Amino acid sequence: MSGTKKVARKAPTTKKPAVKARTTPPETKVGSLTAFLSFVERECVGDFVLFRGQRRDWPLLPKVARSKLRSSISSEETAMLKKFKAKAPPLLQYFPGGDWEWVAIAQHHGMPTRFLDWTRNPLAALWFAIREAPARDEDGALESGVVWVLDYAEADVVQNLEVEGSPLTNRKTRIYEPRYVDTRIKAQAGVFTAHVLNKRDGKESFVPFERHLKFDGRLRKLIVEPTSFRAMRNALHRCGVCAETLYGDLTGLAETIGWEHADDGDVVGSK
User: Fold this and answer.
1) In the prediction, which pLDDT does 270 show?
2) pLDDT value at residue 161
3) Sheet-wide strand order for 145-151
4) pTM to 2 decimals?
5) What whole-number distance in Å separates Cα of residue 153 and Cα of residue 48?
6) Which pLDDT tens digit goes with each residue over 117-168?
7) What average pLDDT does this structure show over 94-117?
8) Which residues have a Cβ under 8 Å from the Cβ of 65 and sit 6 or more positions away?
9) Helix/strand/coil (H, E, C) string of the chain?
10) What is the reported pLDDT for 271?
11) How many CA atoms, within 13 angstroms, populate the side-chain half-sphere of residue 118?
């Protein structure tokens, strides 16, 4: 037998899965109610579209993630919910059916929770973005407002609250469509994103919604020009969109009357 040279086999290489790059949400500038409505009519088609208005372009984080708390997020939100459930019953219109509804009501009345407010009503979202005069940055320049647009699917929605347990132990960021157990939720056509608290190396944190890979490519952003705030707010008021209608209570009525008789000090037109 003639000798044959053995060729050493190379160890098989394993390719690392490619990391999916996040998509930057497309932006559209609007400077009037007409332009805003034109975008909504043209681009926001179907039943699975949500809106969120912000006076400034903050990250999409729930209030509990933006609050200074005495101790860890998990311990403080548990304590706050327990206290709210103990003290709120005499003030409620309807008694909540479980922790998801308790957190929804607490969120709508200002308590820091892991829910983030959205609405099915684009005009409500716009009002929350421009309800006050534009903010200014550190250099004194006017900041734009934003209205986020989220396209979602039925698979993203919390389906069965009876088997879900508490939102404080929720393991997936999802959409929560609440029953109208509160006047404000109904008036604002309120919907929530329920966020997951990540725990790693002894630290707790939330991922900003715009960086969540599950919803990548499903967000859009409307940039509301700051010099248009006053005119757009007046236009919304003529259409019946104001604190009185969006809160549906005495607080909203008082705020609207006060606004109707005040000089809100907004900048009109560009400098």
Assistant:
1) 39
2) 81
3) 27-30, 219-224, 145-151, 49-54, 115-119, 190-194, 174-176
4) 0.88
5) 6
6) 999 999 999 999 999 999 999 999 999 999 999 999 999 999 888 778 899 9
7) 94
8) 73, 114, 195, 205, 206
9) CCCCCCCCCCCCCCCCCCCCCCCCCCEEEECCHHHHHHHHHHHCCCCCEEEEEECCCCCCCCHHHHCCCCCCHHHHHHHHHHHHHHHCHHHCCCCCCCHHHHHHHHHHCCCCCCEEEEECCHHHHHHHHHCCCCCECCCCCECCEEEEEEECCHHHECCCHHHHCCHHHCCCCEEECCCCCCHHHHHCCEEEEECCCEEECCEEECCCHHHCHHHCCCEEEEEECHHHHHHHHHHHHHCCCCHHHHHCCHHHHHHHHHHHCCCCCCCCCCC
10) 37
11) 27
Work out the pLDDT band at 23, boundaries 50, 70, 90.
Answer: confident
